[in-house]
Amino acid sequence: MTGASGARPPSSWPLMASELSVLFRRLRTWAMLLALAAIPILIAAAVKLSAHPVAPGRGPPFLDRISQNGLFVGVTAMIVSVPLFLPLTIGVVAGDTIAGEANLGTLRYLLVAPAGRVRLLLIKYAAAAVFCLAATVTVAAAGALAGVALFPVGPVTLLSGDTIGVGESVLRSLLIAAYIAVSLLGLSAIGLAISTFTDVPVGAMAATVVLSVVSQVADNLPQLEWLHPWLFSHYWLGFADLLRQPISWTSFGDNALLQAGYILVAGALAYGKFTSKDVLS
Amino acid sequence: MTRVWLRWLPAALVPVALATAALSGSYQAGAATTLPHKTAAEVIAMIGHADVRALSGTLQQSSDLGLPQLPSVGPTASQGPASVMELLSGSHTARVYLDGPGKARFQVMDMLAERDVVRNGTDLWLYNSADNSAAHMTMPAEPARTPAPHAAPAPGVTTPEVLAQHFLAAVGPTTDVTVGDGTTVVGRTAYQLVIKPRSTGTLVDSVTIAVDSASGLPIGVDVRARGQGPAAFSLAFTDLSLSTPDAALFSFTPPRGAAVEEKATPQLRALPGKTGQAPQAKAAFARPTIAGSGWDAVMGLPAGTVPADVRSAPMLAQLTQPIPGGRALTTSLVTVLMLDDGRVFAGMVPLERLQAAAAAK
């Protein structure tokens, strides 16, 4: 079926390394990571500078805890950035994967190399997945740094009312970052699939971001309840289960399974389009 | 490039394969099983003799009472009267941990929030993460005789067992009790005890209790309403382990910065607010009058029992309909009549019966 995988060229690592270096040497990538890092810094600064203490239950969850414990800055920032900011950056990176190369006219050169189209798809997707992790870790790390710099740090209160030490709370923050990175894998796959259907990268980016918004709106409509467990954004805020005592892994597992399903479906679509398309540019 | 369709084959097959896998998984959950025959009396005796002292599990509760669906208004848990309303529609997940009669923990898992009930001996803690508030109560010491075996492990804790006891208490001459097909709940084979009121005066069509065939523990309760296909109310384990939970779970210290309130001793026997039982729970504190008996009993609360702010909550105004002399909340399972003079009537009966009971006073 795949002409490329018959004669397997030596290794994918050099290709992967070059793909990652192209991605992370782009000014755009750094601008997006900086914008993401600015979210927790903005939240921390706003809470620090405001004269009135935040009342519990106002604003994003955990906002009132920040002034008592800086470690909550990262968690609050992740909650704030999950619905829009993170999908926005993922949409830009994933939508650009194939369409960007086609638009620049570099796609055919990539395909001249004896790498094969399937492998190129896999490498493009892997690079987008690495960006997912980089983006969430950026928010978590910037949040931790801003929190430590501006607020006292101490034992963290979980949703269950139990208290854990600083070490375990750092571990749980990393788990949350991993959870969100996994949550975004489905969207990346969708972005990659859309990217194979067009030569206009902006179109693919916009379509990906719009899909993520549509999915979240549908998830809030009770009339579409039968659809909810199938929406890729359904478990996006489920990382709160990592802040319970004991940790509830159910949503982590359900989320991973759902994202795997989306990766398979979108991957199959991308494979169908990309291996059968005439690359002219 | 002649076999272009071959390259699109995965795109067609993968969704089909995934849908098949997902659907077969959900069919397996309710698969019928064959169990040694037991009569209804034997299954009820099994529940009575169940000696499950320790367990940890996850409960899923869902209500389909024919009310308009309320959109979830943001991640924070709603408070006050709204939280009662929120129980009337949609679904909730809770984790329950029990160890012996004196140790219990109940965690209602809300979106980005959690409400906890922790009981350790005579200490009872309530914690709400949405506003970081805690309340402490001292339970009456256990009486010398063994405590009622199937009382709620702590106020606010509703397990299938507590609910099953509640419905079994209603079993009498006005009720048919049968044993249905064996079923599977959380990977355990279970007998299905079907309780069907003979009276046509009630909204309840039947109550199905799934009883674990090995331990006799009720692991799921479905309440069906007349003329409605899907269960109007269901509470079942989605995850269950009968091993002893970690002892650290039962020692609760209110977190730093939490508002702690000391409250008066609660009444242990009160069955607290979980959808269908909400009116009865209020009644436990308010000396209700009960007209009729069995399934079509009507409970009346005197004026002043239900606070005015609950009665005037905008959410309640949306859900209730105006009727001469008051407002009525009609669901497929429970009806509540709130009269302008402050009296409240409730029951698992049609509205006309409540109005008749109100007029009889």
What does this structure look like?
The complex is a heterodimer of chains A (281) and B (361). Chain A has 281 residues and is an all-alpha fold. Chain A is 66% helix and 1% strand. In chain A, strands 1-2 form a two-stranded antiparallel ribbon. Chain B has 361 residues and is an alpha+beta fold. Chain B has two domains: 257 residues, Lipoprotein localisation LolA/LolB/LppX (outer membrane lipoprotein receptor (LolB), chain A); 92 residues, TATA-Binding Protein. Chain B contains eight helices and 19 strands. In chain B, strands 1, 2, 3, 4, 5, 6, 7, 8, 9, 10, 11, 12 and 13 form a 13-stranded mixed β-sheet that branches. In chain B, strand 9 and strand 10 form a beta hairpin. The radius of gyration of chain B is 22 Å and the shape is globular. About 10% of the residues of chain B have low confidence.
Write the layout of secondary structure elements.
The complex is a heterodimer of chains A (281) and B (361).
Chain A: H1 3-6, H2 13-24, H3 27-49, H4 72-81, H5 85-104, H6 107-112, H7 117-150, E1 156-157, E2 163-164, H8 166-183, H9 185-196, H10 201-219, H11 250-276
Antiparallel strand pairs in A: 1-2
Helix pairs in contact in A: 2-7, 3-4, 3-5, 3-7, 4-7, 5-7, 5-9, 5-10, 7-8, 7-9, 9-10, 9-11
Chain B: H1 4-29, H2 40-49, E1 54-64, H3 81-87, E2 89-99, E3 103-110, E4 113-120, E5 123-128, E6 133-138, H4 160-168, E7 175-179, E8 183-185, E9 188-197, E10 204-212, E11 218-225, E12 233-241, E13 259-262, H5 278-286, E14 289-291, E15 298-301, H6 308-311, H7 314-319, E16 321-323, E17 326-330, E18 335-339, E19 344-347, H8 351-360
Parallel strand pairs in B: 6-13
Antiparallel strand pairs in B: 1-2, 1-12, 2-3, 3-4, 4-5, 5-6, 7-9, 8-9, 9-10, 10-11, 11-12, 14-15, 15-19, 16-17, 17-18, 18-19
